[in-house]
Amino acid sequence: MIDLAIIGGGPAGLSAGLYATRGGIKNVVLFEKGMPGGQITGSSEIENYPGVKQILSGLDFMEPWQEQCFRFGLKHEMTEISTIKKEGKIFKIFQNDGKVVEAKSVIIATGGRPKRTGIKGENEFWGKGVSTCATCDGFFYKNKEVAVLGGGDTALEEANYLTKMCKKVYVIHRRTEFRAAPITVEHAKNNEKIEFITPAIVEEIKGDNNGVNSIVIKNTQTNQTSQLDVPGIFVFVGYEVNNNILKQDDGSMLCECDQYGSMIVDLNMKTNIEGLFGAGDIRIKASKQVICAAGDGATAALEAIAYLDSHK
């Protein structure tokens, strides 16, 4: 039987594995269907991780994590998990190949993914001018004009954030009304650096070998199209957490989740199910930053150690 199963091999999962094994748990297994590293491996540049002065690609940035995290005995099972159930005090981990593994405790660190729009050029320029993280990529557009697509709280909050370094931010939304909280809308409308383009949609993202250089916008009332010359567009049309493994046979979830499907945890990454922890982007109010996910993983591992010690 596994002492601790970690599901997900991104920054949260790897950090959890490092702290758990170095903290004395003997039998720790990380389940990740591919090579560990997580969503961040798709990033073209990382320059905001403390202590790492070089600007690295996500792939290069995560490479030493694997060596360090497996140094203390963390095991890697390259397999996909279909679901997790708890029977009594034991967790049962069901793999897609039919194998079932038992564990005393579990850390879920499966993360999530921003929704894509399907706009022409989006996939081509993903990470090359198309971004879903103003905190990560906003600095690259210092003193430049950028576009933000979306009308929810995240879109307007990130638009406000981008005005701290960008010369101008165009907010494009398909309706004239916004889903964001009234106070968030008010702050955005009072920001002189933000210009609203509504009701409108983005029909195409254009660029060249250097990345995005313009977007084609269509007014949904007049059907007129126009071109906006910007080197970057930030897309905020929703976020999906990877929570399928929490779904039970009766349609319920293994632990309490919010309306978006994110795991509800406390400051110690504990869920309402004893021995089950959530870390990284899968949890509520996640900052979606590598450093925050790593901190979550460390916290969850320390709590798992305490849990296992108390149930010997």
Question: Could you explain how this protein is built, in words?
Answer:
By secondary structure, this protein is an alpha/beta fold. It has two domains: 2-114 and 239-310, FAD/NAD(P)-binding domain; 130-235, FAD/NAD(P)-binding domain (3-Layer(bba) Sandwich). The chain contains six helices and 17 strands. The protein has helices at residues 11-22, 58-70, 134-137, 153-162, 182-189, 290-310; strands spanning 2-7, 28-31, 75-77, 81-87, 90-95, 100-108, 112-114, 130-131, 145-149, 168-172, 194-197, 200-208, 211-219, 225-228, 233-235, 239-241, 276-278. Strands 1, 2, 3, 4, 5, 6 and 17 form a seven-stranded mixed β-sheet that branches. Helix 1 (11-22) runs parallel beside helix 6 (290-310) and helix 4 runs parallel beside helix 5. It is elongated. The two termini are 14 Å apart. The mean pLDDT is 93.
Summarize this, please?
By secondary structure, the protein is of the alpha/beta class.
Question: Descriptors for this entry?
Answer:
alpha/beta, seven-stranded mixed β-sheet, FAD/NAD(P)-binding domain, 312 residues, 22% helix, elongated
